[in-house]
Amino acid sequence: MNILPLRVALAQVNVTVGDLEGNTNKILTAMQQAYAAGAHIVCLPELALAGYPPEDLLLKPGFVAANLGKLHHLVSESRHMPELTTVVGFVDRDHDIYNAAAVINAGKLVGIYHKHYLPNYGVFDENRYFQAGRKAPIFMINDVHVGVNICEDIWYPSGPMTMQAHAGAEVILNINGSPYYAGKGTFREEMLATRAADNGVIVVYLNMVGGQDELVFDGGSMVFNEQGTLIARAKQFEEDMLIVDLDSASVFRSRLHDPAPPPGTPARGF
What we know:
disordered C terminus, 7-stranded mixed sheet, alpha/beta, globular, 5 helices
């Protein structure tokens, strides 16, 4: 078991819908900054490559293909940052299209997560475009079991986050494109604290910042320990990179006293 902290960078960036070149450059800059800061992981927002929400751009095969091309460019560039793992949102294509998160390390696309819960209410229309994911993998990153999921997936008590925690994840990385409304910050904080404490897992919540049409993304990224205590928070309504050292050993100690159900899915290591 790794006794050293897991250093995570939360890259709270303002991406632009459809600007694949600009978004790729912004993501690459964040990767380089995180690497220079000694981070083991850098998280980028939901659909950061395409911009959120991409809406009818998703109906253009050329756009989806171009977004995949930019992802492969990031994978190639990651060869220069071998100690850094990048988690970034993009549009995946596998017979259908998916709201996805790529896990990238040392020139390889190590894994892909597909969002399970596709919101289809209020300002959201994801069910129109995307197929829902069904798998909840965990990864071994710097000797720590890490689960990756996307936005809405963490809101459900019996969702993929719980599956990942029960499979042995000590840290959950949840990447978001979560719009702001009055009072939402408090609601988010209470929900995330509950998820962390109920599952005995560290929760890293990364949100984008900026605006798209009538939507405003407020950032306010947060980290909660396995007791549900808020231990770090990024700025609101502006770009920020929050660097946090996570004590994953505390999750192990906590589970010795209050163990989760036995692991069911082996982690993939790199």
